[in-house]
Amino acid sequence: MLALVVVLVVTLGGDGDGGGSAVSPVPTDTKAAEAAAHAVATRVALAPPDWGSGFTQHKPYEVDPAPESLVRENCEFASRPSRIGTLASLQRNVTQASSGIAGTSEVKVFADEATAKQYLSDARDNIHRCPDQFRGKERWNGVREASPPQLSGFDELVSEEGRQVVAADGAKVNDLYVIATGRDGRNILSAYVVGKADLDAQIQKYATDSLQKMHQRLEQQPEAAAGR
């Protein structure tokens, strides 16, 4: 799946595959940049009311810092620590009891635009590596790059879709997921939505609306802090 580690369907935690932070002490100016980036991420990531009526926090509500995900050559879906150059990486998770739909908003702020571009390029590679993916007992089928939502203001937009057919406990399911991701400068915004396959239209709308709302918030941030 796209390089968004979704804690609603996978277990978090790095596995030592790439990424990671430098061992040397963090310079003061880097600490200041990380603090500014984290402030932006905190303001841009969505809370339950932002998703709509009936959404509540899903445990864990916040994942900070959120790791990256990858798809191995054997099609296993895994996670790894954030790459060098990641200043902030925050996820917030929500769920709607009435529909069973769950969502994740994620904000990543990188040190420069080149790192953000590479992140999105790697995300695309993950999508195209395997149409069928697994993690433990979980299985996803039909993973593909889809047409992105028609939203203005982004430098790049990527959308991923697929179906989860086996849950973590081995039970068969038929859930559709959509991940809508946009890059604005050195910022990456992602909205992940998953639910029963017959709720396709709602899932698509929640993903598009949530990504748009995060981008509107990003545009309200001071330009220097947001890195745009």
Descriptive terms for the model:
single chain; 228 residues; alpha+beta; Protein Transport Mog1p, Chain A; 8-stranded antiparallel beta sheet; two-stranded antiparallel sheet; globular; Sensor domain-containing protein
Q: What best-fitting shape do the alpha-carbon axes yield?
A: globular
Q: CATH class, anyone? A: Alpha Beta
Structural domains: how many: 1
Strand content: 35-45%
Backbone structural class: alpha+beta
List the strand order in the largest sheet. 1-4-5-10-9-8-7-6
Run of helices and strands: HHEEEEEHEEEEEHH
- Say what the CATH topology is: Protein Transport Mog1p, Chain A
* Rounded mean pLDDT score: 90
State the helical fraction.
Answer: 25-40%
> What low-confidence regions span 5 or more consecutive residues with pLDDT below 50?
9-26
How many DSSP-defined strands?
10
CATH architecture: 3-Layer(aba) Sandwich
Largest sheet, in brief, is: 8 strands, antiparallel
Give the full name of the CATH homologous superfamily.
PknH-like extracellular domain
Distinct helical segment count: 5
Q: Mind telling me the C-alpha Rg? A: 17 Å
N-C termini distance? 27 Å
Protein name: Sensor domain-containing protein
